[in-house]
Amino acid sequence: MEPFGVVGIVLGSFTSLVLGGLLFAAYKLGILYQLFHKTDTKSSKHGGDIVAEVLHAHGVKYIFTLVGGHISPILVACEKMGIRIVDTRHEATAVFAADAVARLSGTVGVAAVTAGPGLTNTVTAVKNAQMAESPLLLIGGAAGTLLQGRGALQDIDQMSLFKPLCKFCTSIRTVREIVPTVKKALAIAQSGTPGPVFIEFPIDTLYPFHLVSKEFVVKNPPKGLMGRIVSWYLHNHLMNLFAGAWEPRDMSPLPVHIPQATDNQIQKCLELVSRAKKPVIVLGSQATLPPTPVDNIRKALEDLGIPCFLGGMCRGLLGKDSPIHIRQNRRDALKEADVVVLAGTVCDFRLSYGRTLSRRSKIIAVNRDKTQLLKNSDMFWKPTIAIQGDAGSFLVRLSEGLKGHRCPEEWPQSLKAGDATKEAANKAKAEEKTEYHLNPLKALHCVDELMAEDSVIVADGGDFVGSAAYIMKPRGPLCWLDPGAFGTLGVGGGFALGAKLCRPESEVCLGSFDSFSVTWIQSLLVHLKP
Questions:
Q1: Pair 402, 273: CB distance under 8 Å
Q2: How does it sit in the membrane (predicted)?
């Protein structure tokens, strides 16, 4: 009897494996899901309608695009929902415009482009958004779910292309996945360190059932068992594609996770700053990110009275002529400071990899991204306190904790005196005669004098950004746009487009220099109909 017992065990195990395999196959093929969720073959709705509903529920006002057939249902549906479709003449411009909207509005910028070359054209702009930490959703078309990898029109491995550039990449496989996937992507784009996310939409997930079903009809199918298997597989795939597609789903936004400094870390910072005689705050673009309103950050800085150097999107945060905004001689000030607060500022090439910081200074570094927080700290500098958290809310809490305490006034006054000396020297250079071309510094001074108080400055190019940063004076918070750490040339058109849509009543001043010859190209006021 013993051998028969062993055989029974083996047969039982084999049966369990077979059943398990069948259940797994049924799950992967959507057969189990279809038992409980039916496919409405009569509905005229399509996946584009669902995308539009989710974006509308998340407050998206603009989609930038270069129209293509793969994504047309999304664009048509969004326009019906009241989301403005802005068509550009290059996909990179569409992403640059979405980037600008993200930075100026505090929401996720959205760009939609067609498959293949439409997506490859966005690579530089997406990388720029990644390095600038802009929350951006890139929607891309793709070949049908069953045709990918089979030589369809404009079919490439798009996921491999964007995984190194985006915080989150995914491909929609059924219509029912659209709502949870788009919600997840939008939350990830804004959480932690903001950045771009990418969703690939195969064309058969966007068009209505009656059109997609025509593509699943096999002309002259193989005869016999193989023909029946192929026909069944295609029919099942089609039904699973639309199963449960139009069932009610919650469209509301998911929670956004933003790291914050702990109370213990704040207390240690309060002790350091309260004892400082010559403190300095260096602000980077990250300090302007939601959820803390920029006006609250501005008030916090003014209450502290600590000299501030403003970089990136923070330019203009303190207005045109703030007594604590120091624009010149940053290297000298950092060497002299006894406490330095790096609020969203990174020790990369812009701070000479940390070499501009004095080893005698107490350094408080605050950044949402751990890698950026500690960049080059193993070589040229060491943080006294390193906080992985939101820079804007940190500054507000620091100000609240130091209520009634202000930086000694002699310190910002001495730095302001250095500002005046350097700016006088810059004006003298601007008056120098040139043999053939405009003096670019003179042109910058002229534009700065003529700009309206509500102007948004778009700085495009390498040398232009460097020159404009210490000559032109943004009049208020979120009135400055430049490429960011990637230094991409050609962002100007898209940035100006996005800026004008966000600020329809404001003038948008777009300026650019050729990076090599430093020749003045343009400074113009961009007027776009709101």
A1: yes
A2: Single-pass membrane protein
Q: Give the pair of three-digit tokens for residue 380.
A: 């040229």
From 339, 391, 518, select the one nearest 443 (Cα to Cα): 518
Are the CB atoms for 168 and 196 separated by under 8 Å? Answer: no
Taking the CA atoms of 157, 98, 389 and 307 in sequence, report the sign of the dihedral they define. Answer: positive
Residue from 390, 416, 409 nearest 306 by CA: 409
What six digits make up the tokens of 140?
């891309």
Q: What is the pLDDT of residue 526?
A: 38
- Which residues, including other chains, have CB under 8 Å from residue 218's CB and lie 6 or more apart? 230, 231, 234
| Burial environment of residue 308 by CB neighbours within 10 A (0 to 12, 13 to 18, 19 or more) | buried
User: pLDDT value at position 528?
Assistant: 40
At 118, the amino acid letter reads G
Which two tokens mark 488?
């991409």
Which residues lie across from 196 on neighbouring strands?
136
CA 456: distance to chain centroid? 19
Write down the pLDDT at residue 36: 83
Q: Give the distance from CA 304 to its chain's centroid.
A: 30
Residue of 495, 490, 425, 400 lying closest to 457 (CA atoms): 495
Q: Which two tokens stand for residue 8?
A: 């029974």
Tokens linked to 363: 């350094």
Q: What distance in Å separates the CA atoms of residue 76 and residue 432, rounded to the nearest whole number? A: 55
Length of the chain: 530
Classify burial at 519, counting beta carbons within 10 Å of its beta carbon; exposed 0-12, middle 13-18, buried 19 or more.
Answer: middle
The SS3 of residue 340 is strand
The tokens describing 45, both together, are 């709705």
Scan for tokens 């746009």, then name that residue. Answer: 481
- Residues with pLDDT less than 70, the chain: 1-14, 513-530
Cα dihedral across residues 407, 409, 414, 415: positive or negative = positive
Token readout for 292 is: 């803390």
Is 459 within 8 Å of 480 (Cβ atoms)? yes
User: Please, are residues 62 and 101 in contact by the beta-carbon 8 Å criterion?
Assistant: yes
Rounded Cα distance, 141 and 74, in Å: 10
**Crossing angle of the two packed helices 391-401 and 294-304, in degrees rounded to 10:** 40
Q: How far apart (Å, rounded) are the C-alpha atoms in residues 174 and 153?
A: 21
List the one residue out of 289, 264, 485, 275 whose CA is nearest residue 392: 289
Question: Which residues are 509's β-sheet partners?
Answer: 457, 525
Among 83, 89, 86, smallest CA distance to 98 is for 86
Contacts of 210 (CB under 8 A, 6+ apart): 41, 44
